[in-house]
Amino acid sequence: MVLQSRVKRRHFAGVLVACAIGACGVPGAAFAANTTAGETGVTADTILLGQSAALTGPTAVLGKQMNAGASLYFDYINKQGGVFGRKIELKALDDMYEPDEAVKNTKKLIDEDRVFALFGYVGTPTSQAVLPLVNQAHVPFFAPFTGAQSLRDPQSRYVFHVRAGYEEETSAIVRQIRTTGLKRIAVVYNDDAYGRAGIGGVEHAIKRLPADSGVQLVAQESVIRNTVEIGDAMQTALKAKPDAIVLISAYRTVGAFVKEALRRGYAGQFYNVSFVGTQALAKEVGPQGSGVIISQVMPHPGNATMPVVREYLRLLQAAGKQNEFDYASIEGFIAAKAFVEGLRRTGHDLTRDRFVASLESMRNVDLGGFIVQFSPESHVGSKFVEMTIINSRGVVIR
Q1: Cα(211)–Cα(208) distance, rounded to whole angstroms?
Q2: How many CA atoms lie within 13 A of 294 on its CB side?
Q3: 166-296 has which CATH code?
Q4: CA-based torsion, 256, 53, 192, 177: positive or negative
Q5: Alpha carbon 322 to its chain's center
Q6: What is the pLDDT confidence band of residue 6, given thresholds at 50, 70 and 90?
Q7: Which of 37, 168, 327, 335 supports an S-S bond with 143, CB 3.0-4.6 Å?
């Protein structure tokens, strides 16, 4: 009787093991069969990533370009056999740059699609809205297209930034304003988390200047996100007679503001941070935008002297898209390259925890002239900022 009981127990244990590896028809079997070591979003031959971005609506260019650049590099890696035999799939959902939609998309990506990581979200308000979901689910949130300090401090274990922040961009803008001898600054900003991050950066940068610099904030006015109705903001800004106007908005709003300000005779300087959508803004204002300055956190996408840009342009050409280079696109490309480097460092036994630890080990990693560095103390990979300007032909140059 004792021997028979032991045999039954061994048989039952064998059934449990068989079910655990997908050999019996229970609900968990399919999940086990589609994962490696039980890790969400990872199979023997795929790694599933999720992205929420504006793919339609007034800021769709940013989301489409960010996705296009990332897909360009992921497709290249997949054609080489993937990372340890796993190909990368990027599932993108449209949030129209609206926080509520981003939350819905993120819940779907985490709970239904069961992605390994979230990648390349576009915008401050959308990224901030999903941050509680990211932290609760312990899912990596990699390379959001935003420079907001609120997503960097306090630091989340799961959030990694490839780009410099708006603090660095606005500091560079204010320093240049001072260097050129301008004193009076007006700021027109989105009435959302992105705009507030930008105006906050300008205020902090001015406070850090020497007391005798003479640089001062003479006007600040908010605008509704995605609007082209800029009359009230225009009135307030121009009434203060600023030497420079810093615009913290997206390309449609900025384009409308610049053209109307010029029509009204404004002769001062316009500045923008990188999220404006550089190529889209240049197209929006054309030659009228001559002299408009944009801070950048990525290398110029047409600067073939930098190895990573040469690689980007070569792959664009191979895809028949040689004329589609764009700042948001190269940001997606470089972010994807950094993500793949993290996967390679993690090794074949891929889990979220191991991936996070591997990212934190990336010190002075050269992605082709663009350096990325993470550590347990800092998840901001780059401090790179440079200025570009729209010339008289409507072309963005360094």
Answers
A1: 8
A2: 29
A3: 3.40.50.2300
A4: negative
A5: 23
A6: very low
A7: 335
Angstrom CA distances, 109 to 115, 119, 141, 142, stand at 6, 11, 12, 14
Question: Which residue has tokens 């056999």?
Answer: 81
DSSP for residue 288: G
Are 46-164+305-372 and 166-296 the same fold in CATH?
A: yes
Q: What pLDDT is recorded for position 49?
A: 98
In angstroms, the CA 340 to CA 345 distance is 9
Instruction: Report the alpha-carbon distance of residue 96 to residue 108 in Å, rounded.
Output: 16
Alpha helices of the chain — where are they, by DSSP H?
Answer: 2-20, 27-33, 60-79, 99-107, 124-137, 166-179, 193-207, 231-239, 251-263, 278-285, 307-318, 327-346, 352-359
Model pLDDT for residues 45-65, shown as the tens digit of each residue: 999 999 999 999 999 999 999
pLDDT digits (tens, 9 = 90+) for 312-337: 999 999 999 999 999 999 999 999 99
pLDDT tens profile 244-271? 999 999 999 999 999 999 999 999 999 9
- The 8-class DSSP code of residue 148 comes to -
**Bond preceding residue 154 cis, omega within 30 of 0:** yes
The pLDDT tens digits of the residues spanning 187-207 come to 999 999 999 999 999 999 999
Chain position carrying tokens 């989340």: 156
* CATH number at 46-164+305-372: 3.40.50.2300
Break the chain into its structural domains and give their ranges.
46-164+305-372, 166-296
What CA–CA distance (Å, rounded) separates 48 from 261? Answer: 46
Summarised one tens digit per residue, pLDDT across range 366-378 is 999 999 999 999 9
* Whole-number percent of the chain with pLDDT over 70: 90
Which residues make beta-bridge pairs with 380?
161
- Report the distance separating Cα 294 and Cα 391, nearest Å: 12
pLDDT for the residue 295: 98
